Amino acid sequence: MAQLDTLLPTGSEITLRKPDDWHLHLRDGAMLAAVLPETARHFGRAIVMPNLVPPVVTAAQAAAYRDRIYAIWPQGAGFTPLMTLYLTEETDPEDVAHAHAAGIATAVKLYPAGATTNSASGVRDFAKVRPVLEKMAEIGMPLCVHGEVTDHSVDIFDREAVFIDKVLKPLRKKTPDLKVVMEHVTTQDAVDYVRDSKKNLAATITTHHLIINRNHILAGGIKPHYYCLPVAKREKHRVALVQAAVSGDPRFFLGTDSAPHTDANKLLPCGCAGVFSATNTISCLAEVFEAAGKLKALEAFAALNGPKFYGLKPNDETITLTKGDPISYPTRIETGDGPVTVFDPGFPLHWHVAV
Ligand SMILES: NC(=O)N[C@@H](CC(=O)O)C(=O)O
Ligand SMILES: [Zn+2]
Ligand SMILES: [Zn+2]
Question: Which domains does the chain have, with CATH numbers?
């Protein structure tokens, strides 16, 4: 994928503010213990997704989950989890406001019911969550959205684009003061929609959607480890995502959507959706940005734009990337629940990360 004229010589170095991950799945229990260090090693903060079983719905549940995270990676040890609440039709606006005011939760997450992994408790009737959305707009708390319709009659490759027209546009029209993050965007349509918006809308882009298109999943044999939701689209969409990511436009920032599932659960006749990329994400991103001739824009994408949208300061710490011989990283990491395969970008990674 790299164009030779954009490649930097061995020994090149770049220092950037420590990145944040604005969309991350840490899971719980043995899986949490195994995957948390993979993120905490390189990232300052992460928006932690609430789709546990059962989901993290209330302020009390988010505080308890945060405590379980701190039990593994102690508070003050360089990584801060930013918690989210899973929006249900029963969510209490006052509990959300309390979670926000008390610094327990940073955002609320909207899963259309049935859209993705562990989303059964998500929203079916958007009228029912209107009071919560109004309260969030009032207090300036962002809504993170898994933007896919779940209607079986809609082709899986069209579900993000249809969601924008059928759900997101009306929702934002009704609540224009609500800050919305379209999570893990995968289409030119989403990039255009975000670019055309005037305010209160941003998008996260994953590492893997900058690298794979749908051929990587389906051509030459099915590759379950590249299957995630929203599913990767055509090459022209991947190119649109790269252009958005390297553009420096503050409305686009990194959310890896690193989503570990054991190999046993990925390699089933009906395998789980999710790509685990925490281990090598920064090195992957450096390759993508270097190939685009935009390595300097990595800092905005991974470390500046996200905090700006969330109204937070960038991290004080820095990381330094150095180009050298290809790095080695494990093909899979061991967890108490079984092995989890690490995202394979399909090319060698030359950027070493030092924190
Ligand atoms: N992205 C995925 O394919 N899976 C995520 C859920 C999600 O972010 O939609 C997961 O929790 O496994
Ligand atoms: Zn999602
Ligand atoms: Zn996710």
Answer: 4-354 (3.20.20.140)
